[in-house]
Amino acid sequence: MSDPYVLAEQAADALRTRFGVDAIDLALVLGSGWAQAAEGLGEHLDECPLAELPGFSAPVVAGHGGDLRLVRTPAGSVAAVFTGRTHLYEGRGVAPVVHGVRTAAAAGARRLVLTNGCGGISHPAGAPVLLADHINLTGATPLVGPRFVDLTDVYSPALRDMAKTVDPTLEEGIYCQFHGPAYETPAEVRMARAIGGTLVGMSTALEAIAAREAGLEVLGISLVTNAAAGIAAQPLSHAEVVEAGLAAQSRLSALLGGLLERL
Ligand SMILES: O=P(O)(O)O[C@@H]1C[C@H](O)[C@@H](CO)O1
Ligand SMILES: Nc1nc2[nH]cnc2c(=O)[nH]1
Questions:
Q1: How far is residue 195's CA from residue 162's CA, in Å, rounded to a whole number?
Q2: Ligand 2: distance of its center to the CA of 176 in Å?
Q3: Does residue 33's CB lie within 6 angstroms of at least one atom of ligand 2?
Q4: Does ligand 2 come within 6 angstroms of the Cβ of 34?
Q5: The pTM of the whole model exceeds 0.80
Q6: CATH of the domain at 41
């Protein structure tokens, strides 16, 4: 099995060559429900299918794109926008889940914005929520060996404060990453609440761990696409998740636009 750090360096070299840039400044990963909000973000410079770069495969989840988009932000930064991600539940192992983050870091990014669609325990559906912390319930980690990474402030207080200047109504939450792909049982949601979680999802935490190992400053934003299982009566579906993203498009677009004026 190839060394994931070497593979990320190879993918970063391929990115620089494909886009003709020396480096990128930041990266943005779009989760379920965020695709439309990222349309028209900054000046479109170029894009290519993710699968063209070493170590990437085409995303398989509806609502996730398969492209890497390069944009120049209003602040003048060069941003790599991953329109989709690989999830742990796809069965490819942990390294592919964080390959995009490691590639972005190897390509020079210093900041990372991770977005996702998730279930709300104590936040209303339709609201974006800043991640203050996470609880990794996957039983997995992208770190192998004595990589004793400090995860204090895994989600940057400075970037969270910046986001709140863009949208002062933003709440903060604690994101519990489950393995997936099944949604949680009501009992699992009650467990997540009991251990301090306010959001339940299937991504983001592992990417954030890899990002902190690489020294990236991380901002995590969840779109609460649905009430977590057992909170509301109706059954959960991915169609509902994608639909909720469409419904929240204008607020998410304003938030991302305001952030990219500052990043
Ligand atoms: O990539 P994210 O975490 O936004 O996608 C969420 C979690 C599952 O992949 C999917 C379930 O509806 O949406
Ligand atoms: N784990 C999990 N992920 C989600 N993504 C969107 N909604 C949910 C949810 O309720 N639970």
A1: 28
A2: 10
A3: no
A4: no
A5: yes
A6: 3.40.50.1580
**Max CA pair span of the chain:** 52
Helix (H) or strand (E) holding 44: strand 43-49
95 conformational bin, left if phi > 0, alpha if psi -120 to 50, beta if neither: alpha
Task: Measure 21 CA to ligand 1 centroid, in angstroms.
Answer: 31
Q: Catalytic residue positions?
A: 184
What ipTM describes this predicted complex? 0.98
Number of structural domains in the chain: 1
Ligand 1 center–CA 31 separation, angstroms: 6
**How many residues appear in the chain?**
263
Tens of pLDDT along the chain (263 residues) come to 689 999 999 999 999 999 999 999 999 999 999 998 888 889 999 999 999 999 998 878 877 889 999 999 999 999 999 999 999 999 999 999 999 999 999 999 999 999 999 999 999 999 999 999 999 999 999 999 999 999 999 999 999 999 999 999 999 999 999 999 999 999 999 999 999 999 999 999 999 999 999 999 999 999 999 999 999 888 899 999 989 999 999 999 999 999 999 99
Q: Ligand 1: which of 200, 202, 206 to mutate, most ligand atoms within 8 Å of CB? A: 202
Token pair in block for residue 131: 């991640």
- Pocket mutation for ligand 2, best pick of 64, 183, 188, 193 (most atoms within 8 Å of C-beta): 183
CA pair distance 221, 115, nearest whole angstrom: 5
Our answer on whether the CB atom of 184 is closer than 6 Å to any ligand 2 atom is yes
Residue 182 domain boundaries: 4-262
